[in-house]
Amino acid sequence: MEAIGTDEEDAGGAGPSGDQTADRDPDSNRDPDSNRDSCNSEDTQSRGAIAGMATVESQPASSRSPSSSLLSSSSSSSSSSASSSSTSSTSAGAVEGAGRADAVSSPPPSAFVPRGSPPSPAPLLAAAAAAVPNHGPRPSAGIRFRDPMTLERLNLMNMAKLSIKSLIEAALALGRSLDSDYAPLQQFFVILEHCLKHGLKVKKSFLGQSKSFWGPLELVERLCPEAAEIAVSVRDLPGLKTPVGRGRAWLRLALMQKTLSDYMKALVARKDLLSEFYEPGSLMLEEEGAVISGMMVGLNVLDANLCMKGEDLDTQVGIIDFTMYLKDGSSSDDNGNANMTAVLDQKNYLEELNRGLNVSLGNLQLKVEILEKVNKTMVEELAAVKRNESELRTEAEKLRSENATLVESTHRKMEAVRVDMDTELQTYRHSRQGLDELYSEARKQLREESQLRLEVENELELQISMKQEMEMAMRLLEKDVHEKQDALVSLREQLQESAETLLKQKMEGVRGLEERNGQMTATVKQLEQKLRQSERERQTAEEDGRRFRQDFGEKIGGLQRQLDERDKQRAQLEADLKIEREWRQALQKELQREKEAAATLQAELRTLQGVKQELQRSQEENRRLKGALDEQEQTLQELGGKLSEYDGSKLKMEDIKEVNKALQGQVWLKDQDATNCKLCEKEFSISRRKHHCRNCGEIFCNSCSDNELPLPSSPKPVRVCDLCHALLLQRYSSGAV
Question: GO MF annotations for this entry (predicted)?
């Protein structure tokens, strides 16, 4: 009676135990369509199934009935099958209590299947518990396991015992090597995977929560140097993208090398290192882990030949198939037929649940593929937008620096021109001062010549009065002298007028250079004509003087001196005219240089205006691209919110890393690293600007990159170099064919 009361208390405690299990797994009440991590889902299934097996080991063999064994095993099956529902953990706890209550009363199995309703998940391990060898600790009849972690450890250890025993018996019976298609071998790897996942700490990332036993297996490489060969082989296997797939490949290679038990013993012995990966109370940190590693020594007699190239180890679903370990619970009591009927009913029920789970799994995989494609596209677009933004910022900075340089050089040139103009103005002022002095000198010479003329007239009158007999000759001479004096006066007046005209032209400055040049040319011609006329008159006067010298020697000597003075004046005028011509030529050369400088400045001004317009266009393009970037960032944020709702997808960090590596394969060359065009090798300058190819990232000149094509990262046509243009055209043409 005391035993009965204890068992009833155990049955009554099934509710709290189930509640505790449900509390440990907060995701169990979520909607089946919500995004849950695949690793957490599998862990919830296995823990629900393992918890249902607790009653098999928590009772002595004498007090266990076939019904209780069936109930306990069925609870594990129903929990693993209902991974997409919200009652996986609660049903496991409820069945656990029901199994302990049934250990006393032992009602018929048909009592648990109401009429008109589908059969409830009943236990399916009737004879499996009796076949478990007596390795490791066995609880007594009075112990009641309230801790779900303890129940899970015991159930996993028992399942490992059954799996290892069946493998060894099958290998001895068949007498051949086992391949990857052998079902008991596949179940052994599934059970071992659950053992390694038990109590594993959850790693959080932006994709959600994930559990991977690849981290603990990597410790073996540090503990056992000979295991490095297996780790290298796993990393070199093609097609493995997730840590789960690499961990499964590692276990298969270790089994083929017959070193799995040694590596597991070395790993279990270092609990200080395993505590970084496992929660307290997990299987690997407790005694059960050492027991399982010891049982694996018997696997060294197996010869396994596993081919992993064709297997998809990343997406395999690790669900324990309990039907492989069932035995007929034949007994002498009258309930054998009823038990067989219940087992068949439960088998049909589990098959229906399995088909539903397969449909749900297919839907989830389809959603995962869609999300992977969307995420990959958005990552590529984001990388393209970031590259375009960085390129535009670099070009804007370059244009700003070039604009500042051009403005500074323009200011320097304008200052130089201003200094040259000031110097020229000072030169003009000095020239005007010299002309004023020349004018004063001419007026002084005119006064002296007028005085000299008066003296000559007085002297001639005196000579006429003294030489009456020569009156006729004197009259003729006087007439000639008057004519020469008139010519000289006219010449002097013309010279004075030309000097005044020249002075006015000098005062006008740069504005009348061309007009003054013409007037100076006309004046020079007139002066030359006058000089030629004076020369002719001088020659005539010399002839007259020679005739007059014969009669009047002294008069002729005076006239000769006057003629010499006239020659000196003529020579002085010729020298002045030569200086004036040279000065005029110098002014013409200076004017030509000024015109050339003005034309150069106008060309530079037009260049600056073109650069300014190009800068304005670049700024407008930059603003437009910034707007597009803001819109795409907003779209990415919305898609990120949607992706966070599907945190149960099978996207892994390694996939994103591989996409990033592919996107980073093209290097964006910096402006300061390129001095010549990569294609024509011409040096860059202000007129030959740098342009980036949007496909390869190299820098070319305008003539070598004057092509536009749409790229996957940009729907609009962008600039590409000649090489990429030809390559893309060939690729598009081959794709169109």
Answer: zinc ion binding
